[in-house]
Amino acid sequence: MKLKEVMAEAKKTGKRQRVDEGERATEVKVSVTLRLDLETLNKIKAEGEEKAIPYQTLINSILKQHATIGGLESRIEALEKKFDKRG
After folding, report:
1. pLDDT digit string, tens, across residues 16-47
2. What b/e string do you get for 48-57 counting C-beta neighbours within 10 Å, with b at 16 or more?
3. 55 and 71 both lie in a single domain
4. Which residues, other chains included, contact 18 with Cβ-Cβ below 8 Å and sequence gap of 6+?
């Protein structure tokens, strides 16, 4: 599936989808809206300036590192349960 098709299917079904056109997932960039605490964002921007890299690149790097640590799926499931109880 092409990226646009994958995103449409994910939105329609509410399930995760994968791009399977030989593209590596790390090469596909998707625009998202994200709400962060102002203090957290300011710290990340400051660190990005210190390291001379764009803050969005730094955020992606932090998230990628966090996502590769074991137990990510169990943390996601716990968050989903938490939010299901609220809804």
Report:
1. 666 555 555 556 677 888 999 999 999 999 99
2. beeeeeebee
3. yes
4. 1, 6, 25
- Residues 55, 66: Cα–Cα separation, whole Å: 16
Domain count, the chain: 2
- 15 shares its domain with 44: no
**36: containing domain:** 32-87
Indicate if 63 and 21 belong to the same structural domain. Answer: no
Q: Is the pLDDT of residue 50 over 90?
A: yes
Q: What is the 3-state secondary structure (H, E, C) of the chain?
A: CCHHHHHHHHHHHCCCCCCCCCCCHHHCCCCCCCCCCHHHHHHHHHHHHHHCCCHHHHHHHHHHHHHHCCCHHHHHHHHHHHHHHHC
